[in-house]
Amino acid sequence: MLVDTFGRTATDLRVSLTDRCNLRCSYCMPPEGLDWLPKPEVLTDDEVVRLVTVGVRDLGITEVRYTGGEPLLRRGLPEIVRRTAALAPRPQISLTTNGIGLARLAGALAGAGLDRVNVSLDTLDPAVFKRLAHRDRHADVLAGLSAARDAGLAPVKINAVLMRGINDHEAVPLLRFCLENGYRLRFIEQMPLDAQHGWSRDGMITADEILARLGEEFSLAPDDREDRGSAPAETFLVDGGPATVGVIGSVTRPFCGACDRVRLTADGQIRNCLFATDESNLRDALRGGATDDEIAERWRKAVWTKRAGHGIDDPSFLQPARPMSAIGG
Question: Is the dihedral of CA 290, 292, 295, 297 positive or negative?
């Protein structure tokens, strides 16, 4: 098992399939984009599946989430999902995406064994979307959401980041939209993971602010029907339920003490925290002829050194060199 010195066990593996993206969201990367990883440095499909197999078969991973960058840009994604679904024991398989291209691929991914999707949607206004993402693709995201729902990739979850002075007035409209369409909404506090290193706590819309704005229009009550466990979102019943809304207060309400996640980057590095400042290289070991047992032992050692928390409130906190697009959500 992947256990750290604080007794936490990692069972949730986030796998970045690419650092490339077809949007330029301002809280992630600059409008001109970034220098992408050279292709030889990126794990091949077979290498991804081999490492996921080691995680599931040998290390107790029970959930695999494919991320990016934008994972729908990975041509081999449906086959990677199919091979993951064939593992024993079979993990839960999910995808975090910006939704562009999902209208075309949702059916194939569901057929390959994908269980559910998380789609990023920060605004209902096409003009605001273009301002945030520097691309005019709002309609494509909405089409992707509908296709995912129709393909049975349930629950379809929407991740929204509110930014002060840009889309912070849309908390209530976003929730209404999700309630009307059967989507499950989760607001996420903006985190210091942008490539520009322009994040500031003063500019962040906090979990308390989000809940206060929603509370002006809806009755919210903590959802005590299920134990939150290691889930990052605090969930609330909307107007008595059964619909819920989630708030992920990564900065102001950290949940590090129950974290069960570990990350594999597109170039084969293990990161035991989004905000880790070091990585463990599995790619070179794999390409150097390491056995599955040797790879598993490297992986265990990487997770063993996981820190107690992300330390954003610590004066010595340093934003990681890699932005979110290169780490994977």
Answer: negative
Comparing CA positions, the residue from 6, 19, 1 lying closest to residue 195 is 19
pTM of the model: 0.92
Q: Which of 173, 175, 200, 203 shows the shortest CA–CA distance to 187?
A: 175
CA-CA distances (angstroms) from residue 277 to 115, 148, 255, 327? 32, 35, 19, 11
**Residue 220: φ, ψ to 5°:** -115, 135
Task: Please give the tally of structural domains in the chain.
Answer: 1
What's the pLDDT tens digit per position in 193-249?
555 556 566 778 899 999 999 999 999 999 976 665 667 789 999 999 999 999 988
CATH code assigned at 143 = 3.20.20.70
Range of the domain at 153: 2-327
Q: Is the peptide bond before 323 cis (omega within 30 degrees of 0)?
A: no
